[in-house]
Amino acid sequence: MKWFEHLLFIIVFLVVTNCNMPKDPNKSWNSIKQHEMQVGVVQAPVDSERFKLIEQEKIMMEKFGTFYKVKSKFLEGTETQLIDSLNNNKIHLIIGGFEKNNILKNEVGTTAPYDGIHVLFIPKGENLLLFKLEEFIYKIK
Amino acid sequence: MYLTHTFELPPHLKKALKKATFLEKVTVVYLISVIVVMFLVMGSSQAMKTAWLEDLLSIVPSIAFLVSTRIYNRPANKKFPYGYHRVFSIAFLTGSLALFGMGMFLIVDSSISLISGERPTIGSTMIFGKQIWLGWFMIIALLYSAIPAMILGHKKQKPAKDLHNKILHTDATTQKADYMTAGTAILGIIGVGYGLWWFDAIMAILISISVIKDGYNNLTNAITDLMDRVPYKIGSQIVDPLLEEIEKTIAYWSWVEGFEIRFREHGQVYFGEIKVLTSEDNVEELITEGIKELKQLHWKIHDITIMQVKSLHP
Q: Which domain of life is it from (chain A) (predicted)?
């Protein structure tokens, strides 16, 4: 029982002293606030359905930047290049008209769907960045 | 064919069995709810996945107990002349093997997670217009998986000891210690919340070690029981003092010049043979009386054979 009492104490202590969870292991959100948000944009054929979706997502990310007062920079690339950059912390997120059950979802972290179907990709484990993105998604839904 | 007689629990233990059966039924319903709740909030946390799988497996002993109690006292027959008592030992072995196997799987899975730097991504949800991090729901789910389990485990301990039922005892002990699994997983989630991604995998490894330890202990116990080890006192590593009591009782019999005993566990009850040296004429009567007296020592002594021999060491 002692172990459990100690655990409860730790939990209460953590909750009382710091409700500031979650945090990012790689401090992505701090980096965005201090510098700029690097958004990977998947290249898609002009006039395709996916291209239109990505254009909408670009507008959404610009609104996100305005909402949080952060600068955004869009970098184009293929899915493979961008996922590689995301996992090496060179970019903060990827927009590409991805559906929530995308086969790439095991390689990255995903946001809640902003329209019930489509999600954004983030580096795995960057939970504060995810929290901020989802805060915005829930606001525009 | 010589069949063992049908087993009947003494009246006060029938009550204990009824209570244990009720508690196990409650446990099954409760664990199903825990499994569903944990699955819904599990996310990609390794510690949560490990705790969930442990909860999933912890339902096995309860179901095994409930099934076994419907079988163990069926009358012996030509196919099973010793009765069905060992159904408990088999159920115990099955549950232990599942626990041990799952522990091995979990430790490999969690270690791969740690080595490959797998970072758990935990999102959020909206409740009554307020955004809440899902990690908090995981913590609540883990507390739900721990507190009632501890109470149930505590309540099952007495009937388990009274009934000398190892599967019930193991279930009670494991459930009582469930708070450690939940507590460790909670620390993993809090670690993730603080950006310490590796904390989750390390906590998952700790849980896996505890699962392996439980599984290994239970497995060795189950195997040694089935190997006809001498009966041990429940929840301990000492030979049941009842055997000493049996020896003392026989030593008092004036008609016995020398003796040796051999006992083994069949589920909840004991079967045994006693070799006696005697030069009395009315051996049959004395043996019948002796068996009667020994059986009065404890309800666990179910089937005894006393045989007259010319020498104790052939």
A: Bacteria
Give DSSP secondary structure letters for A26-42. T-HHHHHHHS-EEEEEE
Q: How does pLDDT run across B202-228, given as a tens digit for each residue?
A: 999 998 998 899 889 889 988 988 999
Selected for mutation to probe chain A from B46, B114, B121, B131 (highest A CB count within 10 Å) is B121
Q: Interface pTM (ipTM) of the complex?
A: 0.86
- Residues B17-39 have a mean pLDDT of 95
The dihedral of CA A91, A92, A95, A99: what is its sign? Answer: positive
Q: Does A134 touch chain B (CB under 8 A)?
A: yes
> Is the minimum CB–CB distance between A17 and chain B shorter than 8 Å?
no
Considering only the beta carbons, identify the residue of B150, B180, B194 that sits closest to A23: B194
Ranges in chain B annotated CATH 1.20.1510.10: 11-226
Mean pLDDT computed over every residue of chain B:
90
Structural domain spans, chain A: 22-140
Helix, strand and coil content of chain A, in percent to the nearest 5, comes to 50, 20, 30
Q: Following DSSP, what letter does each residue of B154-204 receive, concatenated? A: HHHHHHHHHHT-HHHHHHHHHHHTHHHHHHHHHHHHHHHHTT-HHHHHHHH
Cα–Cα distance for residue pair B76/B258, rounded to 1 Å: 32
Q: Which of A34-38, B4-8, B182-186 has the lowest mean pLDDT?
A: B4-8
- Give the confidence band of B7 by pLDDT, cuts at 50, 70, 90: confident
The mean-pLDDT minimum among A94-103, B62-71, B89-98 falls in B89-98
Given the candidates 3.40.50.10490, 3.30.70.1350, 3.40.640.10, 3.20.20.150, the CATH classification of the domain at B242-308 is 3.30.70.1350
Collapsing DSSP to helix, strand or coil, B6 comes out as coil
Token representation of residue B164: 């000398």
CA distance B48 to A48: 41
On whether the A22-140 domain is CATH 3.40.190.10, my answer is: yes
CATH 3.30.70.1350 in chain B, residues?
242-308
Position A4 scores a pLDDT of: 62
CATH class of B11-226: mainly alpha
CA distance B33 to B23: 15
